Structures are given as structure tokens and as C-alpha cells.
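Sample intake sheet
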Amino acid sequence: MQIGVAGLGRMGAGMARRLARGGHDVIVWNRTEEVAGEVAAEPENAGRITVAEPLETIVERMAPPRHVIISVPSGAATDELITHLGRILEAGDVIVDAGNSNFRDSQRRAAEMEAHGIEFLDMGVSGGVWGLKVGFCAMIGGKQSVFERFEPIVKTLAPEGGYLYCGPPGAGHYVKMVHNGIEYGIMQAYGEGFDILHASDYDLDLAAIARMWQHGSVIRSWLL
């Protein structure tokens, strides 16, 4: 399946690579063209990544209905890219926002794109630097029929059992928002716990404790 990826930061580049290595044809764009060229030239991608420059050429390189994942900072950068894509894509094409957007912004953007006949999915993504190897967990909102068209892509992105259609527009980013709150709470708890250990009267090896907790402990995780 063809898929566009606009924005090749840590997450976007990882998703583009995983999709290419999973057998999809990936058309990439990045604000800095050199970065896109470097990703496309990697031998592991087996020639499955090509560069669209300028962004308008993504329409020529893809057959409709087009699916374009965007992975740029939330807020103004996301709005600008969606507005730009809204001008060049055609009715029935799909924009997939894989950034950390406010779910209310996703609701608004879905309505704005629908007015132009363009479909919109919000996709909260978790996985970080490990996503390329082990997969990206994906939480998706939007029309279910549009999700079903996009599902072969997210099935490649995610590990087994690691993606979910969450509901109508905004639902994916709402679930990701709560996910992030849990994540930050866990990290805060780790930070406070190690501070208590550090402040004790014992000469404790904090790194050794962290490593030991990774084996069989109920609080083990890759955040630790």
C-alpha cells in the first residue's frame, strides 16, 4: 500500500522506516529536504522510500485515495501543514495526524477537512526510539470506515494487539492524552522514589537497584 509521511523527526522517520521495511511504498517529505534524502537512501529500506519535494508532488506520486501521515510538533506547525495539505489533496484523501495534538483541535480539524471532502484521522502514537524495532502503539479516532481503509498501514506500524480504533474524531488523541498523564505520573513516582533512596542513611547503589527492579519486580518497565 502507498503511504505518505510528512515530518521526519524521531517518530516520523521511525514510522516511515518501519512501513517501508514492512513492504509499503512510502513517499516522504520533510521541511529539511536533506533529512528526507538520507532516510530514503538507507539500504535497509530496499528502495521503498521516495522523496516528495516540494510537498505538492506528493499528489502526483500517489494514487487516490491517498493517505498521508503527518508527524510534526503540535499546535501551529500541525495547523499549517494540515491547511497546506487541505489545499493540494483531493476529495476522499486522508490526513492522519500522528502528533501529540489536543483532542479538541483534532475535532476541529476533522470538521474543517470534511468541508473540503478530505477525511481525517487522529492517531496518538507511543513507542519512541524503540518503535522501529518493536512497533508503535497507536490509538486512532475518526470515521470507522476511514480507519478500516487505513488499517493495513497501522497493522504494520504496531506490534500485535498494539492498535485500537477508539471512536469518532478526537478519540485517539484523547486516549493518548490520558496515556501521557499516566506516563508522566509513573516517571514522577520513580523520581520521588529514587530521591528518597538517595536521601537515606544507607549507601545505596541506585543504578543497581534500578537494574534489579527490572527483573521480576511489579514496577519494572522500560521507563525505569
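Comment: The mean pLDDT is 96. Residues 210 and 216 are 12 Å apart (CA to CA).
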